[in-house]
Design goal:
Keywords: Membrane, Transmembrane, Transmembrane helix
Radius of gyration: 18 Å
Number of strands: 0
Helix content: over 70%
InterPro entries: DedA_domain (IPR051311), VTT_dom (IPR032816)
Distance between the termini: 50 Å
Low-confidence stretches: none
Protein name: DedA family protein
Pfam family, one: VTT_dom
Strand content: under 5%
Shape: elongated
Amino acid sequence: MLRSLYDWTLSLASHPRALWALAFVAFLESSVFPIPPDALMIPMIIAMPRRAFTIAAVATIASVLGGLLGYAIGALAYEQIGQPILASLGKVDAMTEFNQRFADLSFWPVLIAGLTPFPYKVITIMSGWTGLPLATFIITSIVARAGRFFLVAGLLYYFGAPIRDFIEKRLGLMTVIFVVLLIGGFMAVRYL
């Protein structure tokens, strides 16, 4: 089923309203949809390289707006559904401790999930659930999602179709390595 959903998403790239389809996929992917917008962005940019950065901007805006939906799901569903269930199981203290750990990390989980292949929807929902400040969430989401989508757009714009294989197979790993090095650098500066 996931493969047919992926194929359907990919088929939208050649649709006359592909930008609207991209916005729809990017919006939903940030809260509930399992296929990342990159699956639609890549063929769109290869077909229309001059629109690469417009395509990245649409994906960014829609993804951040979809992230706000994920944030709302986490904020609203936890209060109404999650907390009473956890209270009946005696787990409220454990969740309070988790919330504090997540809050201590501040913007890092949102930044990492927004840049890497980690499902962004998980972090959008958790951000609302744990009460991450909305301004921090929005700013970090903009930076992370723009960083990811404009990187893909830039690579395709400057290198064309030959870079597609690298993006689809190795960009996620390269981004994870970059984030690990970035965090490692901050830790080294802080503790050395």
